[in-house]
Amino acid sequence: MSKTAYLVTAGALLTACSSEAPKLTAPIAVPVVSQAMQAPNGSAGAAAANGGNFGTPLSAAEEVMPAGVVNESLARGNAIFQLNAEGTALSYRLSVANIENVFMAHIHRGPVGTNGPIVVWLFPSTAPVQGATGGGRVDGVIAEGTITAANLVGVLAGQPLSALLADLTSGNAYVNVHTNDGIAPINTGPGDFPGGEIRGQTEHRGR
Fold first, then answer.
1. Which of 45, 115, 140, 203 sits at 20 to 30 Å (Cα–Cα) from 32?
2. What one-character DSSP code corresponds to residue 163?
């Protein structure tokens, strides 16, 4: 059975540093599991062979913003993770829609309603290096790769991958996508939330 899912959202096309009113766009379909992550026969394939599937939808409603900052972003996203049969590597795919100026995305350690430290980099890659600011609108898959114990940073640095898996399973981890238009000041609206514009708490999705 195919596990292709679609994230559909209708929102406003928001341009950083513009005084124009938002313009409505047509519904956007973002494939969050593509054929590239499936076996030829349509099954999940070896990446999900041992039941290590995790994921989360992302939205502005989940973000914990600084005092006085209002996040009315219409952006959406989806992160999926699949553990290999040996339990040593976690493949991931991060998709977004209706968002601008993405320059970082991570897995953070922390429960719902709190901000926590970065434990894995997802965008631009698993290397702990941020991307360019002011990059404009992006839609679709923006990052994919493989996470191993060597990619754990911060409080999980030097620990086995199982430490991350425990947080993903228990809901003590979240994914968020950070945006920055590259123009001071920060937190001026969608496309300019360096602390995070959309977020979602991870969950174990079974075998």
1. 115
2. H
* Residues 26-55 pLDDT 10s: 343 444 333 334 433 333 333 334 558 999
With H, G, I as helix, E, B as strand and everything else as coil, classify residue 118: strand
Report the C-alpha gap between 187 and 72 in whole angstroms: 11
Q: How far apart are CA 20 and CA 75, in angstroms?
A: 18
What distances in angstroms separate CA 207 from CA 46, 50, 54, 162, one per listed residue? 12, 7, 10, 17
Residues 170, 165, 140, 207, Cα dihedral to 10°: -80
For the chain, give me the number of helices (H) and strands (E)?
A: 1, 13
Beta-strand pair 28-31/203-204: unpaired
Structure tokens at 24: 């409505």
Joined together, the tokens standing for residue 195 give 């602390």
pTM: 0.77
